[in-house]
Specification:
Length: 132
């Protein structure tokens, strides 16, 4: 059901120290540490094919504290998720398309009516025809 779940922290160094310690004890490793657009994030998991846990920090404190990413069965399911969410009152937070990450990934992002960042993604896809 979930591809990954993320939380936002107010102090990146403290969050990294805390989550690195507890994830290690649960058998998860730090797969990536990234920085872009002024933000930083960590990706923890059991491996690139397993669901991820993401710890993020952003200079914009209006960012929702929780991020949910659902697994999609295809790129067309990602496209449909995005269209249905917009039609149901969601706001665009990133149109469907390829994304950089641990594995090839095609995703779309919406803000729900309360501003929660919700995503659907298909792993193994580089573009609209991937995985179809």
């Amino acid at each position: 059901m979930f591809d990954h779940v993320g939380v936002h922290v107010s102090d990146f160094a403290a969050g990294k120290r805390f989550y690195s310690a507890i994830m290690s004890e649960l058998g998860f490793e730090l797969l990536q540490e990234n920085e872009a657009g002024g933000g930083r994030w960590l990706v923890f998991g059991a491996g690139p094919a397993a669901p991820f846990f993401v710890v993020a920090w952003a200079p914009d404190r209006s960012v929702a504290p929780v991020h949910l990413a659902f697994m999609a069965s295809s790129t067309s399911a990602v496209d449909s998720f995005h269209a249905a969410g917009l039609a149901a009152g969601g706001r665009d937070n990133g149109p469907p398309g390829p994304r950089a990450g641990v594995t090839p990934y095609y995703a779309a992002y919406l803000l729900d009516p309360d501003g929660l960042n919700v995503e659907a993604g298909f792993r193994g896809a580089q573009g609209p025809s991937g995985g179809e």
